[in-house]
Input
Amino acid sequence: MSGRPGRGRGRTRAVKAVETSAEWHAVLALALTCADDADRGAMDCADAEARRAILSNRMNTASTGLFDRRAGAAIADVAKAWVRIARAFARRETPQGLRRDMAAMVADGATFLDLQLHRLATADFERAHHGRPEVYG
Output
């Protein structure tokens, strides 16, 4: 074992940052699943706990830059607030009762942000295909 701290032990894999639309869609879907788990009171099962831990790791690397650049200040502010709420929801130390109470807020925010991502994608598609009637049939 080397003399430097953190060396010689098993390495943990770095969690990929949440930056692209596809990564955001995946995180939002995971958040909806975790919120459903909490709402049903299923957070004690191993699968639900694993999903919560993954959500926690993903939320710690979430960047709202996509929303900052493309969605405007109001949506970016919502995204930043939702990230903070989702972090608190997914934190290991958060009591189950509080997590259950937060489930609706997490789910509603995830649904709203997913809708915004779909709107951005639709606008991109329309902009890319403007003036091309063959695309629209």
Q: What stands out?
A: The chain has a mean pLDDT of 84. Residues 130 and 136 are 10 Å apart (CA to CA). The two ends are 66 Å apart (CA to CA). The helical segments are 21-40, 46-60, 65-70, 73-90, 96-128, 133-136.
